[in-house]
Specification:
Elements: H1 4-23, H2 31-46, E1 52-58, E2 72-74, E3 81-90, H3 92-96, E4 103-110, E5 122-128, H4 142-153, E6 161-165, H5 171-180, E7 183-187, H6 191-199, E8 207-212, H7 214-227, E9 230-236, H8 242-250, E10 259-260, H9 261-264, E11 270-276, E12 287-288, E13 292-302, E14 306-315
Helix pairs in contact: 1-2, 6-7
Amino acid sequence: MVSLRALAPSLTRVTVAGAIGGVLHVGHGDCDLIDAKAVEFSRAVLNQMDIDGEVICCEGPKDHAPAFERREKVGSGNGPALEFVVDPVDGTTAASKGRKDSISALTCAPRGCFQVLPDDGYYFKVATDYHSIGNLSLDMSVEEIVRTIAQAKNVVLEKFTVIMLDRDRHNDILKVLRQLGVKVILISDGDIVGAIVAATPNSGFDLLIGAGAGPEATIAATAVKCLGGVLLVRVWNPTGDVARVERLKQAGVDVAKTYDEHELAKGDELVFVASGVTKGELLDGVRLSRAGATVNSICMRLPSGTIEKSETTIHFKNHPVYKQFVNEI
């Protein structure tokens, strides 16, 4: 069995490809084109790998965006049996508008390790670092969550920083945060990045809170677990949508349960990889040149807990993958 540690450089190449594919149409206002190219480029690299791989989930189908097929086979078919959750571009809308914090991300593990919440509506998420392990519950109010984390980290509320998606659905949460006097950083897209920076000690961010999609929760859970932090996720259903609750139950979701990073990403052999599409809090964006591109990436893995940042420079013309796309680039 080839270790995931040995495969980590190849997995980084997958998100590098997704970032390069996605960046080609940053600022053009076309989300589908960004997703399509990110999928095309990352698929080309995945299928060069000597693995028996399966993409068990890819963010995008709910919105009819280009994506990997559910249970799509990837790799040569020869090698370790692995599963992937992929978000070719997390923050597609932001990328289409030339905004920050878009990444290409994936998680990888041996078969049977990931639980992915269906891409059906939103899930309430809280992420923070190791200081609050065992002390948080989603039954707490927003104020209780903030005060518990602030006390655990010995941070006064005036210097406490929350990162949250800028969405109308978060207006009530934002009102509470404003009343508490904490700093709130509102991001246009990409709660994977938000969860990671909140779970990273001394990052300048203390908490991610708010409602987001299901597949991103599993990707974030892998990174948060590698960082030793906390991620709590539960079905978010403020309108009492009975039909959605029944769909989720049929899909095997416990609608009353709080899922954590250990349940969404099981085991101790896990890899999270991301590459920056546009500049953001976690990674710099792709820098294109006439001959190629420079891409910044991060790779986290268990059991070692190793976190590696890297910069990759690609020359397109003679590259075994990119030369087929030279005319598009």
